[in-house]
Amino acid sequence: MAVKYYPLINKAVSALGIKGRLLEEIPDDHFFSKPFITMAREPGSGGLPIAKALGKRLGFKVHDESIIDKVAESTKRRRAIIRKIDEKSRGYIEDLIHSSLNPNYIDENTYIKELSKVIMMLAHEGNCIIVGRGSNFITPISRGLHVNVVAPYDLRVQRAIKYEDYTTSKAKKVIAHHEKERKDFVKKYFRQDLDSRNAYDITINTTYYSIEEAAEVLEAAFIKKFPTWQRIKAGLF
């Protein structure tokens, strides 16, 4: 990571108190010179496979599990510790209990600040897709394409049964669990509604789209929002 940008990131994160979208807190032209994509996704909607397909189309790196690695590196904690708290909200009492029992535990404020810094740096590097973690609420709306991937509940359950080999009961339980964790995470730390229509440039319902078809639609949306991207990428200006 480019450490020289950390003071700027720290200033922006502190100004927000972590509780809100950055919008124009950092000068766009200076810090976010390359566009990026954030992708929120409902469990079972196909968000991650679509992100990977879109990444191949655009030549963008997809950041999902790698975000955990970067937060673990910046907090000097084991990856397994960070993974346990990834996209989960916690309370003060829970933090207090865990911190007293586990010296490797990371408190929620430290975690969310470091997560925000990592996502900001990835957005600064640009030409990437950042999956989940409230990234659309952390990064400026004008400098990225902010995507939400959804599908009807029954269809998501059927996909979980088909692709994860779950029973119907387990599929419903897993989807409900992840859905609640993600919504609570965004509500607590960013004071935002994950389902807000105004939080995204585009919401795509994958009921009638294959992974490649959805990626094609999102590629067109990205190029429409950033028509000069190809010239920027080629270094022509």
Structural class, from secondary structure content?
alpha/beta
Order of helices and strands: HHEHEHHHHEHEHHEHH
Low-pLDDT runs of 5+ residues are 21-28, 92-101
Number of helix segments? 12
Write a concise keyword list for the protein shown above.
237 residues; alpha/beta; Rossmann fold; five-stranded parallel sheet; 10% strand
What does this structure look like?
By secondary structure, the chain is of the alpha/beta class. It has a single domain, classed as Rossmann fold. It has twelve helices and five strands. The protein has helices spanning 6-16, 28-31, 47-58, 65-75, 79-85, 92-101, 108-125, 135-138, 153-164, 168-190, 211-225, 229-233; strands at residues 36-41, 61-63, 128-131, 144-150, 202-205. Strands 2-3-1-4-5 form a five-stranded parallel sheet, with helices on both faces. The longest helix is centred in the last third of the chain and has 23 residues, at 168-190. The chain is globular and about 50 Å long. The two termini are 24 Å apart. The model is unreliable at 21-28 and 92-101 (pLDDT under 50).
